[in-house]
Write a structure and sequence with these properties.
Blueprint: H1 3-11, H2 34-48, E1 52-55, H3 81-98, E2 103-109, H4 111-119, H5 121-130, H6 132-156, E3 160-165, H7 176-182, H8 184-197, E4 202-205, E5 225-228, E6 231-232, E7 235-236, H9 239-246, E8 250-254, H10 259-262, H11 265-277, E9 283-287, H12 297-309
Parallel strand pairs: 1-2, 2-3, 3-4, 4-5, 8-9
Antiparallel strand pairs: 6-7
Helix pairs in contact: 2-3, 3-6, 4-5, 4-6, 5-6, 6-8, 11-12
Length: 314
């Protein structure tokens, strides 16, 4: 079974003959776009022998210092395809290089996350609390711009996206209803379009900003597999619990800042075996988020080797 077939098997709920695995990392700014990004992603993919190719998103929406009041969000500048061209060059190169061999997906920040890049995360949250309808005018524009990128990626032949979403973390917004009125509708607009046109995508519930006490609002979000930090409300959920909760395979099991990033190869192997022993079937071994930059590639390769050698009876 090829890497591509193994990932798609998990997505279909079938058990491949080995456990696929993948880890992701941001690279040096010199490798963020164009051909240098293609070469670095390919080097990383080949060295670690991972099964799923993910292209990092390194083209943040431009900050707009003119946003000082909620009403200013209605004047957010729309982005055309030309803004994304340097990253689309990397997407095209990766699809051409790996498409027949592996599933290729693209990291996609949510409209809420992109709005934070435009107006600042704290200002965005404050403006939502002050006048949610005014902010939503900007969210519409930002979502339209994000869809320009999504459509271009699909036209280039990507299999799907790694949709990173935030907004329901503890204390992130003033009221939970702000998430349901100002964040979730725009997430779903993008993700449902992707679901209708793509073969494989990852729902990533990102806890980079803060932890979650509840992840149930994301259950109806599309995504072939779900990836998140299993610690929710101070309790560690098993991969099986998360898979059952979301009704799809779980991708994860490894703490991104744990032994995989800070230990030896032996530590990474041990962490992988522990995760695999507790993993549902089928599963994709991965971290709960992006591995910190500078983490040893050797550790990632060692963990992936453990996944490839793992059998449920071992």
């Amino acid at each position: 079974m090829t890497k591509r077939e193994a990932i798609l098997a998990v997505g279909d709920g079938r058990t491949p003959p080995y456990v696929p695995a993948a880890f992701f990392m941001h690279f040096d700014p010199s490798c963020h776009e164009g051909r240098p990004a293609v070469e670095k992603h390919l080097e990383f993919f080949r060295y670690t022998d991972m099964d799923l190719a993910k292209i990092q998103y390194e083209r943040k929406f431009p900050a707009d210092p003119a946003i000082v009041r909620p009403s200013d969000w209605a004047r957010v500048r729309p982005l055309s395809r030309s803004f994304f061209d340097p990253l689309l060059e990397a997407v095209d190169g990766m699809v051409q290089a790996l498409g027949p061999e592996a599933v290729v997906i693209v990291t996609l920040y949510s409209p809420f996350m992109c709005a934070g890049h435009v107006g600042g995360a704290e200002r965005l949250a404050a403006h939502m609390a002050e006048d949610r309808r005014a902010v939503n005018a900007g969210m519409e524009i930002i979502t339209d711009s994000l869809m320009v990128f999504v459509n271009a990626c699909i036209e280039l032949g990507v299999d799907g996206f790694y949709h990173s979403t935030q907004g329901y973390e503890e204390g992130r917004l003033a009221h939970p209803d702000l998430f349901h009125e100002c964040v979730k509708p725009y997430d779903l607009r993008v993700m449902r379009e992707i679901e209708s046109r793509c073969r494989f995508s990852v729902l990533h519930i990102c806890d980079y900003h803060a932890p979650y006490s509840d992840i149930s609002p994301f259950v109806e979000y599309p995504g072939t597999v779900v990836n998140c930090n299993p610690v929710v409300g101070g309790r560690k959920m098993s991969g099986s619990e998360i898979a059952a909760m979301f009704g799809r395979p779980f991708m994860g099991g490894i703490e991104r800042k744990g032994p995989i990033a800070t230990g030896t190869q032996a530590d990474a192997r041990r962490a992988a075996r522990e995760a695999l022993a507790d993993a549902p079937n089928p599963t994709i071994l991965a971290a709960d988020c992006t591995i910190p930059p500078g983490s040893p590639w050797e550790n990632l390769r060692a963990a992936i080797e453990e996944a490839h050698a793992w059998r449920p009876e071992s």
